[in-house]
Write the structure tokens for this entry.
Amino acid sequence: MKLLTAIFLVAFWSFAWAAPPAGAQAPRKVKMTIPVVAHSMTPVYIAQSKGFFADEKLELDITSTGGGGPDIRALIAGDVEFSFTTGDNVILAHQEGKKLMMVMSGLNKVFINWAMHKESAKTKGVTESMPLAEKIKALKGLTVGVTNPGALTAHLAAFVIRKAGYNPQQDVQIIPIGAGPTWLAALENRKVDVALTAPPVPETAVSRGFAIMFINNAKGEDPSIPEFLMENLVARPETVTKEPDMVRRMVRALTKANQWALKSTPEQVADALKPALGKTPPDLLLAGAAAVLHKMFSNKRES
């Protein structure tokens, strides 16, 4: 992880500040994937709503793939120029011999929460205030929902299940349930007992009254992962080589978004997120905005 972080930092400083602003360049159309529509995409949403992409003469076409896996495969296939996704995607691609580059990090801490159906919690005697070690011991015999088989949610689920002393798919089942509405429907209809994804989806399940918060990583409940390259701008090496100016402009826009957010109030951030997350109840939108600020990569250097 230290080597991966060092490589990322070298790439970040090389591309963010090595060229002047976009100036009078014509807008460059750029395709990018994101895994889910969630608060974890805050740097992207702010760069859109506050005009930081436009300032860099970039016109973004952003596609959500309903979970991690398809987002990075689209990048590898050359269907898009970038993916704003989790660091584990890059590691897995590297293990398969497919080289990718993380050129900017937006969030550097885990921002995935777990919700448990109330009936499952009642059966297992689980409460939100129980110690984490006791809660994860209650997973035995249950079914955990993740967004996609290759997504961070799947990797994190397997990690926690093993930490509890169990074997994934033997002691605890893991199944894909998609993202957003399908995730909520699966948990509400008890197709799964527990499910995990980025805010505000688990919080929505809790607010609708059919779930309790099981693990709140937004509040740092699981201390075993203090830092993680949660959401990053990822590109193919050939894109970085052939179009370095476009890469720099993308990095600058997203860095400005993080800088703006870290200087703003949660209310201001929530307002900037409305174009992308406008269907989220106002209280959950604000709570998610406040939570994500503690996970955002802090860069003190100004452009």
Observations:
- The first strand starts at residue 28 and ends at 34.
